[in-house]
């Protein structure tokens, strides 16, 4: 055990405090959290203006925060910038030009690295290709790709020319992709023939082709050749990227478009309580300030660091902390295409050693999954290059926390358990490297962020009691709206605590006597499977799209590795007989429609579903029955 890590038992709260090693404290970017926090919430606009000054602006803002039309807050209004002038262009004028921006390893073991100089050339070429396809400022380009460098390049290229991207996670399937293309009315789709996962090809182009049949807005589909398997390419619609790159249109010189701070950088769809996914909209200005500041402070970023966020760029974690935050901070970013345990469970640990990774940021699911294989796998590698660890996506159980801390971090790497959401753009509750940690707690609010745990009447609950997590004041990284549906934005997040003007996160949590936050989980019909967010309604609508199904309900039950697993209850159409093979067919059907992550663990056939008199499915009753616990108040249940 490393001597510098002291443990103390704190009887006033939950469990032990784990203190950071002295060397970590000595070099920390912020040494006194309390002092900086106090100043940041006393004068948030002053604090954020200071952070914004660290970035490049073509023209400085007139106003830091415009709250004249709540909850549609605006940040840095009047300011002119572009994400790319911060994430790439400004580095080209310094020594960082020749610093590695990206280290990428494919699952089969192929390797690509790119300096900021090289990244700029690739992004510019792609940007010129998009322009030649008629892509205009403000237009939304859909990107559906495996984890390959071209995914990051395509995103950055959109930003450079002022188009917005909508990245659809490469693990999603036909219906999920089609509905997202449809909602954003994308004219251009960027994809790849396939990607590698556990030694097998995922047929992205096949899925994209199916999705394009269902969403006729796509006129141009640019395809990266990754796997080389045979795919169908349609004349006049489908172009191989390598063919376009061979043409003079793909010059490596391209001007970065001057954007308003509040212009749309991207939309990212996430699941909510209805079947229709919400496209959360983020901007060039505030989002850049927020992701850069959170990344730099929470992970104590140094110029010599090699940073690995082992998420997928198709999720907000990938957007904010694989691509934008780290590139603004001029970091060297590691990216890996495939499965953590392919071909063996030491794959990640061998890459940490091989590339000398200093900071690893991942999810509890991944940790629990790798923990199952035993300590002998990480033990084969020298992981002493690691300085800090991170966790995101779901509550981390103390057992996984301790394994991560002891086995991966050798008890000398503090774990930054970061709580946040697609909607928040960046970390909201998180330790800093100097924060004494409590395993399982995301600890304290980030600078400028005020959080409370309240009841339905907006009254703060007592320390240790469960309640709704609310955010009391605006922050620059917040989503500005739901694309095309501002009413839903208000309804979902701001209606319940309208009088107070608070944002309702949809999570239940408690705060202990020391002011440490403990996230319990979602209070709405959102399921977190392996840290991925899915709506029960999406799974249900996939099930009822099958010709044998009349009605369906989906719930989440605890799962050892995935955090939650999906259980479904199905009423079949008259005359259809349930059985093992139909059960399997329905599980596969959900996987084909949404993606393998949504594949239900269980499909159970029932004659009726518990409903309220107004016809709403009572999922909590199904859940209580499945878990064999008290069903609670049944007074609203229809007989
Ligand atoms: O329930 C919380 C959980 O993930 C939700 C947000 O999901 P998504 O928008 O997909 O973003 C995930 C990555 C930021 C939250 O409402 N969640 C996220 N991080 C944590 C967490 N729950 C507990 N602890 C965390 N560190």
From TrEMBL:
Domain of life: Bacteria
The keyword ATP-binding is annotated on this UniProt entry: yes
GO cellular component terms, semicolon-separated: cytosol
Ranges where the AMP-dependent synthetase/ligase domain occurs: 93-480
Keyword Zinc: no
Entry keywords, A to Z: Acetylation, ATP-binding, Ligase, Nucleotide-binding
GO molecular function terms listed in the Swiss-Prot or TrEMBL record: acetate-CoA ligase activity; AMP binding; ATP binding
Coiled coil spans: none
Domain spans labelled Acetyl-coenzyme A synthetase N-terminal: 33-87
This enzyme's EC code(s): 6.2.1.1
One GO-annotated biological process of the protein: acetyl-CoA biosynthetic process from acetate
First-level EC class: ligase
UniProt domain AMP-binding enzyme C-terminal: residue ranges: 538-616
Family indicated by similarity: Belongs to the ATP-dependent AMP-binding enzyme family.
Stored PANTHER family: ACETYL-COENZYME A SYNTHETASE, ACETYL-COENZYME A SYNTHETASE 1
Protein name: Acetate--CoA ligase
Species the sequence originates in: Natronogracilivirga saccharolytica
Lineage: Bacteria, Pseudomonadati, Balneolota, Balneolia, Balneolales
Encoding gene per record: acs
